[in-house]
Amino acid sequence: MTKKPFLWGGALAAHQFEGGWNEGGKGPSVVDVMTAGAHGVARQITQDIEAGKFYPNHTAIDFYHHYKDDIKLFAELGLKCLRTSIAWTRIFPKGDELEPNEEGLRFYDNVFDELIAHGIEPVITLSHFEMPLHIARQYGGFRNRKTVEFFERFATACFERYKNKVKYWMTFNEINNQMDTSNPIFFWTNSGVQVKPGENPQEVLYQVAHYELLASAKAVIAGKKINPDFQIGCMVSHVPIYPYSCNPEDMMASEIAMHQRFFFPDVHVRGYYPAYALKEFEREGYKLDITDEDLVYLKKGTVDYIGFSYYMSTVVKADAKNDNRDNIVNGALPNAVENPYIKSSDWGWPIDPEGLRYTLNRLYDRYQLPLFIVENGFGAIDELENGNQVHDKPRIEYLGAHIKAMQTAMDYDGVDVIGYTAWGIIDVVSFTTGEMKKRYGVIYVDRDNAGNGSMKRYKKDSFEWYKQVISTNGASL
Ligand code: BGP
Fold first, then answer.
1. pLDDT per residue over 108-120, tens digit each?
2. Whose Cα sits closest to atom 14 in ligand 1?
3. Which SUPFAM superfamilies match (predicted)?
């Protein structure tokens, strides 16, 4: 049983479900130039929006035109909150304008009003992989200190406009997944950055990270001035890294690898750089533009809570050599190995509910701030049967086991969790693969990988199940 009121909800991101990518004055974003991938085929970052090429998020599931009906379904499901993002390019189409786009602001007024009228609280991510393409091209994204200013202006415009509609905010989605510099899509979508030949990606990463952390801190400070009741959090992807064995060398390998997970939240929460990072900057001789004034902002702009995604765990072994660096799960870890004790999804994502309890304990011990599970879900191939049914038992099992682990962390271990939003509550375009085939929703959308389909919505078996979970406050799993 979870404490009340608990924020049971669903999670989405503008570019993965809104569609209307060039409507209402919206400009192109970094993700609007990412092509579809497929099983085993990575998404490509192109430099132009070429006619005739397929960019899956251009239409997505067309929430832009279906929002009223979709919100009705969310209300029937009993959601207490909906986590979604504001597409930066609806508000500042190029990113460097001085004034926001009124039509874009009005769209979110309409969406938030509709949610609130149905008793659903909007929980908002300011930037979920949606930086204006113009900022990436013209300024090099977060390589450039000017981008801190652009983000602060965007955040301030949102805080001002929605100050009476939104209480829970997050600055950047999964800000830490760009620690995996081996995968170009994370750097691009988080920060609008592409590493140039001859550059040390790690040095680029830390400069970009600094400007982004500074932008987040400045946004927190600006938000608190506008409405002191705002709760502004960070958002990190948390994939615990277990040691392969009790060999002290494996244990140490895991501990050191975990710095990758903690670097961003350490700064977001504590307001200063952790010792292990300062040592690395010094050891490697990185030349970073970090001023004393910046450090004051970091200290002042710390977050109120930690939002995080949890999908899986991973494992390292001190003397292993990971030959599969393209693998999205273990890419960043040179010594990753498979976990022999757990199974994986069709996309190779290890399924580990116990890892969620472990994560909640670890984050709470380290930071002692409220935790918000803002993404957790099961990506699978779902089939529409008999015209209107989807039997998605594995999803029910996955969500149920993770919710149970969360409840144990709360009831037995005393961890403070304020909410749980299931990822992709309605089927959306997959971020890492650009497919529709990888579905997470409790609501099915009739649309295929190529963008064909009626766009009709159908309730899956998990819809009734999740409805029960919410209405019993987690007692019925
Ligand atoms: C997270 C992202 C989401 C989402 C989710 C599932 O990394 O924040 O945007 O897509 O992962 O990933 P995928 O869609 O690739 O299965």
1. 999 999 999 999 9
2. 430
3. (Trans)glycosidases
pTM over 0.90: yes
Q: Is the ipTM of this complex over 0.85?
A: yes
User: What pLDDT sits at residue 251?
Assistant: 98
Q: Is 173 in the pocket of ligand 1 (CB under 6 A)?
A: yes
**What are the tens digits of pLDDT across the range 332-389?**
788 999 999 999 998 889 999 999 999 999 999 999 999 999 999 999 999 999 999 9
How many whole angstroms from 430 Cα to the centroid of ligand 1? Answer: 6
Is 255 part of the annotated catalytic residue set? no
Residue nearest to atom 9 of ligand 1 (CA): 431
Say which of 18, 121, 130, 375 is annotated catalytic.
Answer: 375
Q: 3 pLDDT band (50/70/90 cuts)?
A: low
Phi and psi torsions of 307, nearest 5°: -90, 140
- Rounded to the nearest angstrom, the distance between the alpha carbon of 4 and the centre of ligand 1 is 28
| CA-to-CA dists, residue 226 to 8, 294, 322, angstroms | 27, 21, 48
For residue 432, the CA-to-ligand 1 centroid distance in Å is 6
All domains of the chain in start order, with CATH? 7-471 (3.20.20.80)
The CA 16 to ligand 1 mean position distance, Å, reads 9
Is 435 touching ligand 1 by the criterion CB < 6 Å?
A: no
